[in-house]
Write a structure and sequence with these properties.
By secondary structure, the chain is an alpha/beta fold. It is built from 14 helices and 19 strands. The chain is elongated. The two termini are 27 Å apart. It binds cytidine-5'-monophosphate (C5P).
């Protein structure tokens, strides 16, 4: 992501302490971050904390001689995004009525950047019709309001009003700072391994972690795409904002993919589907029997080949993955043709730094017209971004 800049406004609620973590995450993501606080916020957390984390001077007093004359106007016009977290009921009310009586409120009023509000307060304050009406007004005027979480509150009660976790706010921020160049495109992504049971306690599977497919689903969502993620069992948390379908076996994956694929424009099959499954699932745990056991396997449906075979006229991009340990290009090319794909992403899973279970990947992309491109070793997020760029280009060209 090119260097972005964000203003974080902190208002006077107990959740102000979580804003410190948000600043850390912003800075870690390479976002230039400046903090403005209300006077009440400084009672909960010291400006020094934010200065140390952001590396920038914090403004909490409109009349501080250290402020440049027009900071309250320039900050919100030069930034890519203004976040107010936590946003108290009082601050929300002020903004809904256009009041500007301190640095933060005047800065928000003068801002041309988009504004993300993260309300945090006691449930009754949040559900109070005045607060709800104020939030409605702000939404109507283009403010983005993040739903508060539900759970334990500092006042000792349980209910809606918690500031979303900093990582969740950060995910929303990443989306708001990303170009929405995939808006309107509908994706179906598969990820992870499948598992094929042998008996009630044992199964066959493979080493796929799901990271590549999840990175693609998340990347597409960040850039405005509508995403359905069909995933075999993984340790990963589904990305925010995707429709998530969890499956176990290849048969289940096939059913869900066929059910869901009708309305999608792009199908990316990053899942490592087991090609075979045990012919029978034993009803009881299999017992030790002599020194040899033979397991009979039968072929699983090849979901991607089925999609390729049944391609209807009309536009749809079909992308496969080929994880290989030998003859990478020849095998990938064979699959591209046999499965009737637009693009196949080939990775050599015998490398220790690419493919299964690691955070990096190095892939070769083969196209239907015989072209081949190589993406060097990079984080899976960057591989995902590179693939999405190419898919977008293909879609725009109408291939
Ligand atoms: O297993 P194989 O190397 O043939 O997988 C290539 C591509 O086909 C991958 O995109 C994978 O998700 C897909 N596939 C599938 N159903 C299978 C096997 C593979 O959709 N049974």
């Amino acid at each position: 992501m090119e260097k972005k800049s964000v203003i974080l406004g902190v208002t006077g609620g107990i959740a102000a302490y979580k804003a410190a973590e948000l600043v850390r995450l912003l800075v870690k993501a390479g976002v230039e971050t400046k903090v403005a606080m209300t006077q009440n916020a400084t009672k909960f957390i010291s400006p020094l904390t934010f200065e140390a984390l952001s590396g920038n001077k914090v403004v909490s007093d409109m009349w501080d001689a250290g402020n440049a004359a027009m900071d309250h106007v320039h900050w919100g016009q030069e930034a890519d995004l203004v976040i107010v977290a936590p946003a108290t009921a009082d601050f929300i009310a002020k903004m809904a009525h256009g009041l500007g009586d301190d640095f933060l409120s005047t800065m928000v009023l003068a801002a041309s950047a988009r504004i993300l509000l993260c309300p945090a307060m006691n449930s009754r304050m949040l559900l109070n019709p005045m607060t709800q009406a104020n939030l409605g007004t702000l939404r109507k005027h283009g403010y983005i309001v993040m739903e508060p979480g539900d759970g334990g509150l500092a006042c000792g009660t349980d209910g809606p009003g918690r500031l979303p976790e900093p990582e969740d706010i950060m995910e929303e921020v990443r989306k708001l700072l990303s170009p929405q160049d995939l808006a309107g495109l509908r994706f179906l992504v598969t990820a992870g391994p499948t598992i094929e049971p042998l008996d009630p306690v044992r199964y066959m599977t493979n080493r796929s972690s799901g990271r590549m497919g999840y990175a693609i689903a998340r990347g597409a969502r960040m850039r405005g795409g509508d995403v359905i993620l069909v995933s075999g069992p993984t340790q990963l948390v589904p990305p925010r904002g995707v429709v998530f379908e969890s499956v176990n076996t290849a048969e289940e994956m096939r059913r869900v993919v066929l059910d869901r694929c009708g309305s999608v424009d792009v199908i990316i099959k990053a899942a490592a589907v087991l090609d075979y499954r045990p012919k029978e699932k034993a009803p009881q745990k299999m017992k030790r029997k002599g020194d040899r056991q033979t397991l009979e396997l039968i072929e699983n449906p090849d979901i991607l080949a089925e999609l390729g075979r049944d391609r209807v006229s009309g536009r749809r991009i079909l992308v496969g993955f080929a994880a290989e340990t030998e003859d990478l290009l020849a095998n990938a090319k064979g699959k591209l043709q046999r499965k009737n794909l637009d693009m196949i992403v080939a990775n050599d899973v015998s490398r220790h730094d690419a493919g299964f279970e690691v955070d990096t990947n190095s892939v070769k992309i083969l196209y239907r017209d015989g072209r081949m491109e190589e993406l060097g070793l990079m984080p899976k997020e960057s591989v995902a971004a590179g693939l999405l760029d190419r898919i977008k280009e293909m879609w725009e060209k109408g291939t």
